[in-house]
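New here. Your pick:
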Amino acid sequence: MWWPKPKRAPWISKTHYAQMPQGIWVREVSVANQIIVTTLTEPSQISPDELVALYAMRWNIEVDFRTLKATMNMDVLRCMSPAMVPKEIAVYLLTYNLVRWAMARAAQLAQVSARALGFAGARRLICTFAGHLRRRTYSDTDYLAATLLKSIGRCKLPKRPDRVEPRAKKCRPKPLPLLTVSRQVAREQIRAHRLKVAP
C-alpha cells in the first residue's frame, strides 16, 4: 500500500517537512486479528510469523525505557540548567550500558541469554560490590570481579511468555502540593506561618 505524506504538523518546520518523501510503500499483514505494518514489502524477505516474532521483540525497547526511567530514577532529571540536561542523560546512558555490559559478560559465563537476567538485581550487586572493590588491592580485584559476574549470572528472571500488564498506576498519589520553591525558602515559609499562628 502507498501511504502518502500527512499534512504538516505545527511542531515540524517547513524546511524539514519539505525534505520528507511524498509517501512510502508499506506492507500490511493480518496476523491473529491484528494488522502489522512494515516497510519490508517483499513477502519473500520475511514471513508473517517472523514479523510477529520481531514485533514481540520490540517489547524489549519498552522494558529498556522503563528501566532507565524507573529502576535508574531517570524519570525526573535533577540538573538545574538546560546545558546540563544532555550531560545528565549521557551519564544515565553510560551507567545503563555498563550494567548491561556486565550482564552480557555474566550471561556468557552462565551460558544463558542476557535478557534472562534481571537489570535491577545486577545493578544492586554492582553497587554493593563497588565499595569492596575500592578497598581491595589490585591482586584481589580479579577474584571479586569473578564473584560479581557469577552472582549476576544467578539473577535470572522468571519465564513469563505472553505477559500482559495494565497501563495503570497502582500507587495512589499523596494529596500534597508540589514543591515549587527551594527547600530553604519552603522551610522559612513554614517557620513564618508558625510564628503567625503561635499564641
